[in-house]
Structures are given as C-alpha cells and as structure tokens.
Design goal:
three-stranded antiparallel sheet, disordered N terminus, 4 helices, four-stranded antiparallel sheet, mainly beta, globular
Length: about 450
C-alpha cells in the first residue's frame, strides 16, 4: 500500500464539478452536493482527464495517467479519513472538562476476567474486544476522553479502536459520532520515533513515556473517544473494540475505511483504556441527541415540544417569548435551543437531504438543512440557524422586523424572527454551516469542502 496525492489541477476539476452539480441530481441550492470524484492519480501529475471518475465504465483506462493496476470503489473510500494528513476530518470533539474532576460515572471492571481498572484489546485475533460495566446517577450524554494514549510508540503502529456503550436506549452501543461506517474510530496517535523533550514534537504534542517502549510524541490534549448515552438505573456495558480484525474483513469485501498505518501486521497492536486512571467525561447538554429528553422503558422519550402549541418559541416543552437559539453558539446549526450535530452524525434521514435527524432542523423538508441559503418570507428556517426569514436572504429582502408567528405545514407554530438587531449577521448564534454566510457563493463553499474531502485512500 503506498500513498498518492491529488494533483493541483484538481482545483480546476472541482470548479467544473460545481457547475455540473445540478446535472448530478443535487438538490437546488445545495452547495455541498458534488459529482463523483476523479480517479486516483500518481503524485503531482498535472495532466489528467477530469471526466474520468470512479463511476466511468472504462475506468481507469479513461485516464492514461492513472497508476497501472489502480482500482476505485464507487463509494470512493471513506470521506471522513484524510489519508495524507492521517487525520479524522468528520468529528467535532467538544472541549474537554477539567481532568482533575471526579468521573461522573462509576466503572466496574467485572467482565474481562481481571480487576486492573482497564479494558484492552489486541489486533492479532486473540482478544479483539474487552468490556466492563458503567453506572451513572443521571441519564445523559457524556463526551469521554482518554488523558494518556501513549502505549507503544512506533513499536506498534495500528493501535486503533473504538468504544461502545450498550444500554436499553442505545442497544448497539455506538457513539453519537461516526467516521468509518457506524464506528467512531480513534486512530493510533503515538507512532513517532524516540524523542527527548517536548520541543521535538511540535505544537499540540508532548514527549511522553510509551509504556516501556521508549519516549514518543503524543497529543497534549486529552484524546476524544466519542459521545455516549449513559442510562441511570441499569448496568451500561462499556467495551473497547480493536479495529484491525474488522479492517481486514472490510478489505476482503472490497472496502477500505482507512485508519490503518501498517496493514495491521507485525505486532499485537494492543489498545488499552485505563478508565479508572486516565478517563475524563463531560456531560453534554447543548447538542440535539436521540435521547435529549430522557430514556424510557420503551426507548428514547420524544421532544415535549412536539405536543405543545406555542405562539412563539418552545424548548423542552416550555413556551418562550424569546428565541432560545439566540443564546447559544453552534457550529452547524440550531433548533429549539440545541445545537445540531455535523452532517456525519448517525440517525435516520427522513427527507433524504443528506442530513440525519440530528443534523437537520426539519427532517420532513428536504429544502431545509445547514448550508442552504435562507429564503425570504417563506416562514421556514431554510438554513437551520434557528432563525426564520432573517437577512440576508434570497428571493427578496426581509423587513428586518419580527414578522410574528407563522403556522408551518405540519401544524407547528413558529416565530419568524431575524434581520438586523436579531443577533448579528449569522442570526445570533454563529452557526452557519462551515462558517459560510448565506450570502457566500455556493461554488466557493463547495470548492473548500471538496478540497478537504477528496483526499482518498488507495489500496
């Protein structure tokens, strides 16, 4: 397996792809929808055929500059993994809480045959999964971190794995985030040669002992392991799962999600999570989650606002005069005072607009989702920033005044708020997707996103 890079001419190809986005069946106004990427190319080739894509019937012969023997999965591998920077580009780890604070849950090491305060797994097939029990007093979502990920330095290069926490409202145990199919993988981040001090490691990394394997550079900040639902009153099963055996099965099926450095060969590739010693966790009350309103005997409880008719705004079943999204800062959007997840968050997508229920302010309307431009005077929050018909918008100009409540087609009563004085250019919560204002050119947003996502892994 060798690395490849995308030629500089890709920028020109991307520009052409934006122009043809509508021909690719993209929803009108969706600047994030792009045609299939071109085939993988040898490093720095300035000459290529931009019309030769993964879906071309004569791929790779349609581009003579493709490397001999290259193959291309129509899914174009994993859009969440940057093969060249060796980085997950889909997750949004929240800022960690104080690592000196007590854990908000109790870990019981009772399921793996030892009582050493940790769970661990190996990549060589002898122990690929290890579990314990977590108990909590308050049902909530918790962002979990590991404060010390250094283990084997460059003696073991594929210590990649993921957590699952199973309970009645999350029987599969998945994290809210995902970056490789359904999983949220944590990449092996200590694969550096010996270091003597922090100065050798660069910004954001420190030189640390690697469990008897020498000293190497590791992330200075705690490593994000994912956001999980923990349910009070029951034993939540927490497991660490090794990625290598699953990666090998994916390769056998013709898929490659990445997150592998050395083809999972040559060592045990052990992964450890010393929960009692190195874990920290922060309760997350700010984001929209499947069980934001609790976990009942039959599953997640519904949003109480769904059964309340309010003249203006609603949050957690309470009618409000003021827009709750005006008081929060969200990166991807806001609905009823809670921040939307990024578009890679798991969950059903009922309106098939590419944004799951957790990433969409209205999953019944494909014309409303982050990244869309606001449409004037239609009574909808088209761009999912938590405000309705605010300036600037398309199809006219809003009055800049509170237009009063509006009844949506589904019967919900919403306020049409926004415009100058409602909280700034972004509608008051700084939450336009990707930091792009509604007046930005769709093509420029697509090019920026495309350049980030079109780095692909090639087997």
């Amino acid at each position: 397996m060798r690395r490849v890079s995308i030629a500089a001419v890709l920028y020109t190809a991307l520009a052409a792809s934006v122009a043809s986005a509508q021909d690719a069946g993209c929803p009108p106004g969706d600047e994030f929808c792009l045609p299939p990427p071109p085939c993988y190319r040898e490093p720095d080739d300035p000459d290529c055929n931009p019309d030769c894509t993964c879906d071309s019937p004569d791929y790779p012969e349609c581009d003579p500059y493709c490397a001999p023997g290259d193959i291309c999965d129509p899914s174009c591998a994993n859009p969440c993994w940057d093969e060249f920077e060796r980085d997950d580009i889909c997750s949004d780890p929240p800022p960690p809480c104080d690592p000196t604070g007590d854990l908000p849950f109790t870990f019981i090491d009772d399921r793996d045959g030892s009582d050493d305060g940790q769970i661990y797994a190996l990549g060589n097939g002898s122990r690929t999964r290890s579990c314990g029990t977590v108990r909590v007093d308050t049902t909530a979502y918790y962002a979990i971190y590991d404060t010390e990920l250094s283990e084997s330095c460059d003696d073991q290069l594929d210590e990649t794995g993921y957590l699952t926490i199973e309970n009645r409202c999350n029987p599969d145990g998945w994290a809210v985030e995902r970056n490789a199919g359904e999983r949220f993988l944590v990449f092996d981040s200590d694969n550096t040669p010996d270091c003597a001090d922090d100065a050798e490691c660069g910004a954001g990394r420190v030189c640390r002992e690697g469990g008897g394997h020498g000293r190497c550079c590791v992330p200075e900040a705690p490593v994000f392991m994912g956001t999980f639902l923990l349910v009070a009153g029951e034993d939540n099963e927490i497991c660490i799962n090794h990625w290598c055996p699953e990666w090998e099965m994916e390769i056998a099926e013709g898929r490659d999600f990445g997150f592998v450095e050395a083809d999972c060969e040559g060592s045990a590739n052990s992964i450890h999570f010393r929960i009692d010693a190195t874990a920290i966790a922060c309760e997350d009350e700010t984001h929209l989650q499947p069980c934001s309103w609790g976990c009942g005997e039959d599953g997640c409880l519904p949003d109480p606002c769904d059964s309340v008719s309010c003249p203006a705004f609603c949050m957690d079943g309470e009618c409000l005069d003021d827009n709750p999204c005006a008081d929060v800062t969200c990166e991807h959007g806001c609905v009823r005072g809670r921040c939307l997840q990024n578009r890679h968050a798991r969950g059903p997508d009922e309106d098939m607009d590419g944004y799951s229920r957790l990433a969409d302010c209205d999953d019944t309307d494909p014309r409303a989702h982050p990244g869309r431009a606001e449409v004037c005077a239609d009574g909808d929050d088209d761009d999912c920033d938590g405000f309705f018909d605010e300036s600037p918008c398309e199809g006219g100009s809003s009055s800049g005044m509170d237009a009063g409540p509006s009844t949506r087609p589904d019967g919900r009563v919403v306020a049409r708020d926004g415009g100058p004085g409602s909280g700034g250019e972004d509608g008051g919560c700084g939450c336009r997707a990707g930091g792009v204002s509604s007046g930005a050119a769709p093509g420029s947003a697509a090019l920026l996103l495309g350049l980030a996502l079109w780095r692909r892994r090639r087997r």
